[in-house]
Amino acid sequence: MLVETYQAQLNRLLEQFDCKIQLPEEWAESFFDERGVLPTSFDERRQFARYHFRGKGILQVQRTLPTIQRSRGLYVIYTFDIARGGFAFLHTSQLFPCELCELWLPTQKLTVEITRCQYINSRCYLIGSRPTSRNLATLATQ
Amino acid sequence: MSCQTAEVAEFAIEDCLPIHINTLVPEQCIGIELYIRDSRSGRLRLYRGENIIIKEADRQRLIDHDVRMLFIKKADHRRYQDYLNEHLELVLKDETKSVAARFTTLNEVVRDVMATSFRSGDVESTVKQSQQLADHCVDLLSRDDYAANELLGVLHHDYQTFTHSANVTFLCVLLSKALGITHPDDIQQIAIGALLHDLGKLDIPERILTKPGKLTDAEFDVVRNHPKWGFQKLCQRDDITNAQLMMVYQHHERVDGGGYPVGIPKAEIHDWARLTTVVDVYEALTANRPYRGPLRHSQAIEIMERDCGRVFDPEMMQCWLRLIKHN
């Protein structure tokens, strides 16, 4: 029996689930074309450069919080940007700090802890996270 | 003033914690040495030994001499909190005292206990103390003979986080009742959530919290983290409800979506968080701040009316305005 590769598994999941994220109009046209290092601002306080990292992935909440009810379903996410210590993605609903999620990214799986969440529209939240185990440095430069 | 000092002992003020004289129950032995500040040297000297009973006349004499605060050694703070918890109920149930007098005592106790808990940075202790204090707040503020203006008259208005948290708690209980929240469990939970709503400020450096001038963008970014930090301190607990967590996490959200930390619009902000926002801003405007004095009620109302529908939920705002204008 043939073993399904990670990439094939991910593609199968992406085909299986609809993406319900609603990109804002100003992002929609070129969202997936963005490449390279994000520009910094004059008062930039980030330690490491961030890179555009646009694609699709799958999210599953691994551990939520005692007072929050969530299903263990799979959701399509849009990957957003990446840095040495963190990873951002778009999701259809709000996630809270300290929740743990497993992400199926184009090249690897990653377990992350949610660190922040920003409302874009009612079907689009920009979520900041940090990996619980592996360093993102290699992924950031791929 | 002349004080009956049991022996000569002096302490530097940094080694002690201030306590309000209203938290001392007359005719009871506190079991802790009490110190008084010497008006000339500024140092603390022994006022009463640990086994000396404080009489009502002693308390009155202190008030006559304009002394409101005594001091205890930092090492005694746990014993002091035990004393407060043990005796507070006695004071609050003393029908010979007016409701206003009992509220004054409760207010001092809440401030003292929250101050000590906040300073210790011990979340476990802070949550436990909040739960106990919330019971007392709700009991006293749920009385039929209680008037809101009595409460507004005795609140302190310094800029300390624990004072603000105590005030917001009393005011949240008032507003929730005015909004028709009647179940005692709900009101008690709101009181606990309000006591904890600024817990994340423990992580903001003191120099930023007390900075007399305008905050830089970088400093303001630090301040904007406090709802998230408070949430992170409490979110794994099973004795905190989702609604209470949202009071902590969402009390700086605005109904037009321009708030922080998430920027969600009204429909996604929890009712109790929107309630907290109204009271939180009112209390902040009418309190002393390092960078300005307190605003008059009329000025605070004017500012808040301007932001009604943008920052504040109009329904809650109208209810709040009726409540404070009436009083």
Give a quick precis of the structure.
With 142 residues, chain A is mainly β. Chain A has helices at residues 6-16, 25-28, 137-141, and strands spanning 51-63, 74-82, 87-91, 100-104, 109-121, 124-131. Chain A is globular and about 50 Å long.
Can you give keywords for this protein?
heterodimer; A: 142 residues; mainly beta; Thrombin, subunit H; 6-stranded antiparallel barrel; 3 helices; 37% strand; globular; B: 327 residues; mainly alpha; 3-stranded antiparallel β-sheet; 14 helices; disordered N terminus
> In terms of structural class, how would the helical and strand content of chain B be classed?
mainly alpha
Terminal Cα span of chain B: 38 Å
Helix tally of chain B?
A: 14
Radius of gyration of chain B, Cα only, in angstroms? Answer: 20 Å
Please describe the biggest sheet of chain A, giving its number of strands, its sense, and whether it closes into a barrel. Answer: 6 strands, antiparallel, barrel
Largest sheet of chain B: 3 strands, antiparallel
- Give the class-level CATH name of chain A: Mainly Beta
List SSEs of chain A in N-to-C order: HHEEEEEEH
- Overall average pLDDT of chain A: 88
CATH topology of chain A: Thrombin, subunit H
Instruction: Give the strand tally of chain A.
Output: 6
Q: Give the ordered list of helices and strands of chain B.
A: EEEEEEHEHHHHHHHHHHHHH
- First-residue to last-residue Cα separation of chain A: 31 Å
**Helical amount of chain A:** 10-25%
Gyration radius of chain A, rounded: 15 Å
Number of helices of chain A: 3
Structural class by secondary-structure content of chain A:
mainly beta
CATH fold name of the largest domain in chain B, please?
Hypothetical protein af1432
- Widest sheet of chain B: strand order? 1-5-4
Widest sheet: strand ordering of chain A: 1-2-3-6-5-4
